[in-house]
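User: Need the bound-state model for iron/sulfur cluster:
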Amino acid sequence: MSKTVAEKILSKYIEGDYVKGAEAELLITHTLIQDSTGTMADLQFEAMGVPKVKTELSVSFADHNMLQGDYKNMDDHKYLQSVAAKHGLVFSRPGNGICHQVFLERFSKPGKTMLGSDSHSTSAGGAGMIAIGAGGLDVAAAMAGEKYMLILPEIIGVKLTGKLQTYVSAKDVILEVLRQIGVKGAVGKILEYHGPGIKNLSVPERGTITNMGTETGATTSIFPSDEETRKFFAQQDREGDWIEVKADPDAMYDELLSINLDELEPLIALPHSPGNVKKVSEVEGIKVDQVCVGSCTNSSLKDLKTVSQIMKGTHVPDQLSLTISPGSRQVLLHLIESSELAYLVSSGARILECACGPCIGMGQAPNTDAVSLRTFNRNFLARSGTRSAQVYLVSPETAAASAISGVITDPRTLGEFPVIEMPEKFIIDNSMIIVPTDEPVEVVRGPNIKPLPDFNPLPATIEDEVLLKLGNDITTDYILAGGARILPLRSNVPEISKYVFEDHELDFWKRAQAKGGGIIVAGENYGQGSSREHAALAPKYLGISAVLALSYARIHQANLLNFGIAPLIIDAGDYEKVNEGDNLEIDLTDFNNLKVVNKTDGTSLRITHTLTDLDIIILKEGGRLPYINAKRK
Ligand code: MIC
Ligand code: SF4
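Assistant: Bound-state model below.
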């Protein structure tokens, strides 16, 4: 039978046929962890007692927790580096770049499977790899050689025709996808790009599109591995890692989207959702306080050369702050070599290190009520570090045009497009990548590294109060924020749990602990966004026993299950009726017939679930770690 690119790769790494909707065990060849999720992943990997990683390649990055306000972040980095050396992971040192940019450049491999403890691991789909974001525990399990349980997704074919016009770029393509299908349009599906337009997109441009595909809820996004891909691998001096992976000519997609690149215009996501997309021309003229260029979505060499060439000979207005975060040292070295870094500096740009930086609120929080234009992928309320800020998501071209004028500007008004000269070969400097050896290594555990808490198995009956009733699209940033204040606590569950739902209710943790735990009720797409398992782990620490939501984002549902919180589905009518403060009794004896009584008003609630038989076993054992360890004994 003819197959799409995603079906071809997935079929190679599962047992049996690709049956959509069926659960499969996927063999993972590559893994990625980064510092904000990686400390927990490493602690869990250590708890599995496996001496060396069992993948073809596992890479550990330090790119998120880069502000060293005290000892904590550097403690975490020392821990990650020593675990990598001891257990056979490659370590990309702080300063080497953002995990997804560096992975694409130096480690991606067409035709293989990658599991990453970061939701934007999908960037590597730009190089023809099946790359999936997951919670740290799932990635730790993959490092230990466990297969990844995946409901085999349907495939949405995104047909690209034509060629992007000047001042329109890859970011506008993914914003157009988001405009068409929204932030839950591809939950449980794969976005696969095809059509004559793809040959006009380089691998880093494809990476921008697959990266931000995560914002549609997609399991992953992928491009074929073709001649463009081969060229990229040759430029990276890695042609030996390239293979061709193409869809069969008569491959069928379950759904189709199409985009004519010739007709695409510069787009912009308005506050506070990546799905809130309009044409830039519709919102032109709004005064801008801050422009931030960078993040794993738009920090490739082409992106930054474009910004630099547009900024050349200009200067930012007195009231506007422009920051630039290169995606990797490779990108930065090229900008230095070509003098394009000088154009940026001369234009008044503030050059930040090669890291996530402002994207995760690690510095550069905007001023009160600011308008901030960012080339990033998420503009959730308060993620920038300033609750009153209005964050817009744009392409590098729109960012640069607006940085010059001081107001939101359609870049096509700038006139002639500058010449962007890309190098024949990229500068290869692996000196900040540490490859493990057989030398004995002691793991370095500073005081910020706290052991994993133990949790009890789920009881047969839960009797708890509804502590919170929430609406639709609750993000994991809302459940547990990132940012400079909270990220340093990622390896310390008791401490970080004090910030759970902090933006919703200050000191929620105290109420949760005083009640001895409770239940969360929520609307559609609960847990959208980041893969941070802390958004399940910390609530678990506070005693949250179950979530009753209308639907879930894929990674968060898996994280809840992994830590033994029951992710159940509430009927829409009953969602309306249930109130904060109600006492519920959930009888979990038979998952085919869940009995839930609202003891406050005596009514019954209709509750279902999408859990597999194995999920139910895992849940009953108290989560995936006790399950894996019991299986290994
Ligand atoms: C994000 O963009 O939200 C993050 C920070 O990269 C997260 C990971 C994390 O929360 O540490 C993600 O996308 O998974
Ligand atoms: Fe880092 Fe932002 Fe990318 Fe997350 S989305 S990996 S915080 S750059």
